[in-house]
Amino acid sequence: MLTLFIPCRPVPCRTVFPPDAPAFTVRGGRSRFPLVSLFLATLFCLMSLGKPALAAPETMAGKGRASWYGTTSHGKQTANGEIYNKFAMTAAHKAVPFGTVLRVYNLRNGRHVLVRVNDRGPFVEGRIVDLSFRAANALRMANSGVIAVALEVVSHTDGKPLNAKNAFYVHLADEKNPLIGMARAASLEKKLGVPLNVFFSLRGKNPSHAICAGPYQTFDEAHEAFLAMEALEQTLLGIIEGPLKGAELPHLSPPGHREKPRRDKSPVAEAADLFIEQVASVSAALPQTVLDMQRGFAFTLFKSLVPGLTDGAQAPAVTAGRNDVRG
Q1: Which pTM was predicted?
Q2: Can you name the residues that pair with 212 across neighbouring β-strands?
Q3: Which helix H or strand E contains 210, and what residues bound it?
Q4: Fold topology of 166-249
Q5: Are the CB atoms for 327 and 204 separated by under 8 Å?
Q6: How far from each other are the two terminal CA atoms of the chain, in whole angstroms?
Q7: CA 152, CA 115: separation in Å to the nearest integer?
Q8: Quick one: angle between helices 288-305 and 267-282, nearest 10?
Q9: Domain ranges of the chain
Q10: For the sheet containing 166-175, what is the strand order?
Q11: Contact between residue 241 and residue 154 where contact means Cβ atoms under 8 Å apart
Q12: Which CATH architecture has domain 57-153?
């Protein structure tokens, strides 16, 4: 094949800029502003360095539908080579890198759980995550099968929290009464042989005291401890993320979720609730029947002493055992 090369004279070309901008003329393939071109090329290269192959963690969080898989896949190999354990806190996602920890919110009841991605799926239209049986049970979705959820990335691929001020904890139990919570923590600490912490938790419908083991620097360390403790204590609630320093677990809400503003109680109603809680904590060891009588008597007495007390202050029920607090 014959190719003809015809020499031609370079033709000046002019790029269109706003009227007040200087003309940018190219002659013979050379720019009038070589330093500007070099600066732009260098800036582009610097912006390209360090970009991950996948999207940023913030873009991976979203809403959709979640399902779960259990007995039929138990003991089989997952996409990252691990053996699937339906009692582990794991999940399958189509794009999130393996080892990343997700917080999955159940949009129906407000519960949330932490899971580590170790598989790919679900390959069903409209579904964004497939949870293990244990994680689905923690979200109270094992019976419904498919629910609406929101996802939030909380760790790097090595299992360390995105927030360096946080760590992972094994969530053993919740107690409304602080004295009962401390007593139960001491009992569990002796039984499990690990140091425990008691956090004031705002992650439920009502404030409570969360009994936790930790902290653990990575999710894998917390998960290993979780499986070991669950073999001894069958009432573990899961794995949570909490502060390394501090004694409070802040309230969590799904990404993009707007909560209705809570109506604050009057100072009189708050004083009544505090008075009843103190009476209940002092007499926590009494039988349930005596506690119910004392609770009603204390509330009636306080209401008679304070004429401005409204019906907004309700006497809390006192339970000597474990309280099931959602969230």
Answers
A1: 0.61
A2: 171, 197
A3: strand 208-216
A4: Alpha-Beta Plaits (3.30.70)
A5: yes
A6: 75
A7: 11
A8: 150
A9: 57-153, 166-249, 265-321
A10: 238-243, 166-175, 208-216, 196-201, 248-249
A11: yes
A12: Beta Barrel (2.40)
